[in-house]
């Protein structure tokens, strides 16, 4: 609670205490007026001042104007002996209570987004000629060496060249579990170094780093309003003056008609009804709760490591019925792993041992996967005469024996017959031979992420009707992943432009009310992210182009974040609809009762302030979503 909120709360409590105390004093006439003007002015001076400034600027029709007219009118009616000053104080008092709840809710939402804003680093420890200097992160060029001490934030994206530590990534990914890093690992800005000292070589400038992109997305999110917010803004501009003139007509027309018919005009009765009408009709609940619901939804998503670039995208995301995935790096890990070993004449360990030694000096991803599968590769074996055959594989002498590792073309070239395995999966097959003797083959595949199955099941439970996968991989590799994940439709062997064409075809086939979302991470996914109804980029490994083109950015590469994003958006829209229906329904009922004299000022207070408080409390539920 900030200073202004505390001050308002004190005013509310003092005003309420005074009003309750003055009700016990048996006084009437001018002294009763004087007494109740004290709590009235204490609680309402700022509202009256805002209303006056609006009139001076020729922009009078807002909530403050409605409250000022209604309460001053109630005081005038009480002076005529047909009402009570308590009603005027109560209207202003409960209006301020509603405003306080609204400011508290906004503050709670802001703190959620503010936690993201706190990731901005204040400095960077740059190493120059052996000297450590504390500088502005914006002054550090790409390729510089920076030192990150325990407790400090990593200021710029880079690669660790010395040291190992544990990082707190919660502010970026929403993941509370610390991440262990060591020499050679990539690190992103905004993470907190928890233990060891790290020396990092920067790979980007500060303006292009992860933390800068996040801050830019958060700062710009408020400018992209949803259709619901734009409608409410236009509605309030028309609704408020219409209400004022309707109340004026209610105050004057019935008495004038009564006078024309020779009846008692009862001006005080109709003025009181008009004032009640004004209080009931105040659109606070809608004007405040709808934007607040979206603001809370975006804040709640941010706490989960999901950056939504505007409330318009939150609204679109809630209508998602088709989700199209890129495969590599999105549903799969994007790195090769040994998934099966099929030896002949030797055991599995020996087959991996020979393959890893031949691939010792290769930088190819397949070579890295073979070395990872045999961690004892750096033993005492002698590896000589390494020869790479383009498009076929590698040959080398291991302790005097020539070993060949590669595809079928290489095996044929060295006079070895390849034996196909009946249990072969849809991965890349690496054959191994010693001399002309066939030793077996190793299967290497891009493995599915551990959470992909759960994520796709979660999407279906959340109302997604169709899941599609687009990939440039072979039909066999794509089919294996699709079968493992139970994907509805698969399109393989696609070039980037063909992915766009396929998405356009899916857009033409979809239900007109349903939204198509595309999820990708690579630079070649940027055109598809732009073409889809809503683009979702994997942020941790995703390319800059993909993140710029996307409407939603996930701050890690877990597909489960997509399920969370859709559930948050749908809960937010459900809250918006609840608030609209509840607010309008209660107000219409109370307006009808007020117009015919069945609702007094206390009913009006509930219809205005009570409905607003309930709507605001409902709106802040968007901050928390069970996923």
What topology does this entry show?
Elements: H1 3-22, H2 29-56, H3 63-79, H4 85-117, E1 124-128, E2 131-135, E3 145-148, E4 158-162, E5 165-168, H5 170-173, E6 179-181, E7 186-187, E8 192-193, E9 198-202, H6 210-221, H7 227-260, H8 267-281, H9 284-303, E10 306-308, H10 311-317, E11 320-326, E12 332-343, H11 348-358, H12 365-373, E13 383-389, E14 393-398, E15 401-406, H13 408-413, E16 428-434, E17 437-448, H14 452-461, E18 466-470, H15 475-485, E19 489-491, H16 496-509, E20 515-520, H17 526-531, E21 534-538, H18 544-549, E22 552-554, H19 560-595, H20 601-619
Helix pairs in contact: 1-2, 1-4, 2-3, 2-4, 3-4, 3-8, 4-9, 4-20, 7-8, 7-9, 8-19, 8-20, 9-19, 9-20, 10-19, 11-12, 14-19, 19-20
Structure notes:
With about 625 residues, the protein is an alpha+beta fold. Among the domains are: about 125-215, Calcium-transporting ATPase, cytoplasmic transduction domain A; about 305-330 and about 450-570, Rossmann fold, CATH 3.40.50.1000; about 335-445, Calcium-transporting ATPase, cytoplasmic domain N (3-Layer(aba) Sandwich). Helices cover about 50% and strands about 20% of the residues. The chain is built from 20 helices and 22 strands. The strands form 4 sheets. Strands 10-22-21-20-11-18-19 form a 7-stranded mixed β-sheet, sandwiched between helices. Helix 19 (about 560-595) packs antiparallel against helix 20 (about 600-620). It is elongated. The two termini are about 30 Å apart. The relative contact order is 0.11. The mean pLDDT is about 80.
């Amino acid at each position: 609670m900030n200073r202004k909120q505390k001050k308002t709360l004190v005013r509310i409590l003092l005003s309420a205490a005074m009003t309750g105390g003055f009700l016990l004093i048996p006084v009437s006439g001018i002294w009763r007026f004087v007494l109740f003007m004290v709590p009235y002015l204490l609680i309402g001076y700022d509202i009256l001042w805002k209303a006056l400034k609006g009139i001076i600027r020729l922009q009078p029709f807002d909530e403050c104007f409605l409250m000022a007219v209604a309460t001053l009118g109630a005081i005038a009616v009480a002076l005529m002996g047909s009402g009570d000053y308590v009603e005027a104080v109560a209207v202003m008092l409960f209006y301020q209570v509603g405003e306080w709840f609204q400011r508290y809710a906004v503050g709670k939402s802001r703190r959620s987004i503010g936690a993201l804003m706190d990731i901005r680093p204040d400095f960077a420890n740059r190493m120059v000629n052996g000297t450590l200097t504390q500088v502005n992160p914006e002054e550090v060029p790409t390729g510089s060496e920076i030192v990150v001490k325990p407790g400090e934030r990593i200021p710029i994206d880079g690669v660790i060249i010395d040291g190992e530590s544990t990082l707190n990534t919660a502010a970026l990914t929403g993941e509370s579990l610390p991440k262990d890093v060591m020499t050679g690992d990539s690190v992103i800005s905004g993470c907190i170094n928890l233990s060891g000292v790290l020396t990092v070589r920067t790979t980007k400038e500060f303006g292009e780093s992860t933390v800068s992109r996040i801050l830019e997305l958060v700062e710009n999110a408020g400018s992209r309003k949803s259709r619901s917010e734009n409608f409410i803004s236009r509605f309030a501009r028309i609704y408020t003056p219409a209400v004022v003139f309707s109340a004026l007509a209610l105050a004057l027309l019935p008495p004038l008609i009564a006078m024309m018919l020779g009846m008692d005009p009862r001006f005080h009765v109709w003025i009181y009804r008009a004032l009640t009408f004004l209080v009931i009709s105040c659109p606070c609940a809608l004007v405040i709760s709808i934007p607040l619901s979206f603001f809370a939804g975006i804040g709640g998503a941010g706490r989960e490591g999901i950056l939504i670039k505007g409330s318009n995208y939150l609204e679109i995301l809630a209508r998602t019925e088709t989700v199209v995935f890129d495969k590599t790096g999105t549903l799969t890990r994007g790195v090769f792993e040994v998934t099966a070993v099929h030896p002949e004449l030797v055991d599995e360990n020996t087959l991996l041992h020979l393959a890893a030694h031949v691939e010792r000096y290769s930088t190819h991803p397949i070579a890295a996967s073979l070395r990872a599968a045999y961690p004892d590769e750096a033993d005492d074996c002698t590896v000589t005469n390494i020869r790479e055959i383009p498009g076929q594989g590698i040959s080398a002498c291991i302790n005097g024996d020539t070993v060949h590792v590669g595809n079928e073309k290489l095996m044929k070239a060295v006079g070895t017959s390849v034996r196909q395995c009946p249990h072969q999966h849809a991965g890349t097959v690496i054959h191994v031979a010693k001399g002309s003797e066939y030793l077996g083959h190793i299967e290497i595949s891009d493995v599915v992420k551990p959470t992909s199955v759960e994520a796709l099941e979660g999407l279906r439970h959340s109302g997604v009707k169709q899941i599609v996968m687009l990939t440039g991989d072979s039909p066999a590799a794509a089919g294996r992943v699709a079968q493992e994940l139970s994907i509805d439709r698969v399109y393989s062997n696609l070039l980037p432009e063909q992915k766009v064409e396929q998405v356009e075809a899916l857009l033409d086939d979809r239900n007109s009310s349903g939204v198509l979302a595309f999820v990708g991470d690579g630079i070649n996914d940027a055109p598809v992210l732009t073409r889809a109804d809503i683009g979702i980029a994997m942020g941790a490994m995703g390319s800059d182009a993909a993140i710029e083109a996307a409407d939603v950015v996930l701050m890690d590469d877990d597909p489960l974040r997509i399920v969370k994003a859709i559930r948050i958006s749908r809960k937010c829209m459900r809250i918006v609809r609840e608030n609209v229906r509840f607010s309008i329904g209660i107000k219409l009922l109370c307006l009808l009762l007020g117009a015919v004299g069945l609702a007094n000022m206390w009913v009006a207070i509930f219809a205005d302030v009570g409905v607003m408080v309930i709507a605001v409390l409902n709106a802040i539920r968007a901050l928390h979503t069970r996923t």
